[in-house]
Amino acid sequence: MTAGLTAALVAGSALAAPPSERSTPSSPAAKTRSARPRIALTFDDLPAHGPLPVGGDRLVIARTILAALAAHHAPAFGFMNATFGAGDPNAPRVLAAWRSAGLPIGNHTAGHVNLDTVGSTAFLADVLRNEPAIAAVAGDSDWHWFRYPFLAEGQDASVRDTVRAGLRARGYRIAAVTMSFGDYAWNDAFARCTARNDTTAIATLETSFLAAARAQAQRSRDLARAALGRDIPYVLLLHLGAFDARMMPRLLDLYDQMGFGFTTLPEAEADRFYAGSRDLSQPGPTATLEAAAYAKGQPIPANAPLPTAEVCA
Questions:
Q1: Cis peptide before 47 (omega within 30 of 0)
Q2: What is the pLDDT of residue 196?
Q3: Which of these, 104, 82, 89, lies nearest to 59 by C-alpha position?
Q4: Which of 59, 116, 288, 304 could pair with 90 as two cysteines, CB 3.0-4.6 Å apart?
Q5: Rounded CA gap, 282 and 276, in Å?
Q6: Which residues, 6+ apart, have CB-to-CB distance to 291 below 8 Å?
Q7: DSSP readout, 25-65?
């Protein structure tokens, strides 16, 4: 690790603004920041997401993302699958680096299982199977936040309610998603293009990644305003992947240029829109902006396109 990166990670562990940016809650600077729409960054599939490009390194991926977060004073929450990265000596180092940066970690099931495929009993068993590994790295931080793999919460109401009851009994809250742009698809395409050393295709991926992020961020704001008449603190779904790492400084710059600030997952979900995610005694599924807009009779905009499987195939 370079001295500069070490300093960036140390700075990020506190996740605090430098003295020149600090202000009291009533100061003009604080009011300006609080008026900005906010994003809570969440990263799925720790410690190893997606294919590793030729010459890639999981720990370098993690450190690159952590350095970008630190540079932007951006909090983040990670979601772990204990079986991911099995056999990779850097997998435990990734988790250690994440925690050393002061970032919390939550449950994403041990094997990234799909509730709609395995059913409630096997699903809850996989949630519990993940807990010892999380507890071992989480320390005294609050790791009782849960992210559904594939965002699948059960097409059948009885399955959905059974899992919500099981998660509630374990003290979990749900990490909702109110902003996403399918970043995982770029990680797959990047690995293929790297194998072919196709620099032109990689440059095209960079452009389309940022375009999709911009379009989807605006889409989330448009949906919130149409359905709720206001911005909410948005919860962004990302992954700990190689192309995410390559693009993270530019992605965070983009959100800053769009006028967004950054916040923590618990702070974002303190908003009343997320009440059903915090209190699992309420009926599911987890609230989405699409569902809220649909209930108001508002149109649902199309999603930005993803890279296809034909890119660098």
A1: yes
A2: 97
A3: 89
A4: 59
A5: 6
A6: none
A7: TTSHHHHHHHHS-EEEEEEEEET--SPPPTT--HHHHHHHH
3-state secondary structure of 225: helix
Q: How far is residue 197's CA from residue 201's CA, in Å, rounded to a whole number? A: 9
Asked whether 245 and 125 are in contact (CB, 8 A), the reply is no
Decide: helix, strand or coil at residue 145.
strand
Enter the tokens of residue 4. Answer: 């500069």
Which residue carries 């994003």 as its tokens? Answer: 39
Residue 133 is which amino acid?
A
In the structure encoding, which two tokens stand for residue 220, read together? 């989330």
Omega of the bond leading into 89 within 30 degrees of 0 (cis) = no
Tell me which residue has tokens 């499987």: 309
DSSP line for 167-196: HHHTT-EE---SB---HHHHHHHHHHHHHT
Do 265 and 37 meet the contact criterion of CB atoms below 8 Å apart? no
Q: How far is CA 118 from CA 114, 142, 145, in A?
A: 6, 27, 21
Q: Which helix (H) or strand (E) holds 66?
A: helix 58-71
Of 201, 157, 149, 203, nearest to 177 by C-alpha is 149
> Are residues 230 and 224 in contact, defined by beta-carbon separation less than 8 angstroms?
yes
pLDDT single digits (tens) 42-74: 999 999 999 999 999 999 999 999 999 999 999
The pairing of beta strand 105-107 with beta strand 234-239: unpaired
Task: State the distance between the two ends of the chain, measured CA to CA, in whole angstroms.
Answer: 34
Note every long-range contact of 253-257, with CB atoms under 8 Å and residues 24 or more positions apart, other chains counting: 253/72, 254/210, 254/213, 254/214, 255/39, 255/213, 255/217, 256/72
Q: Which residue shows structure tokens 């990644």?
A: 209
Structure tokens given for 281: 């005694």
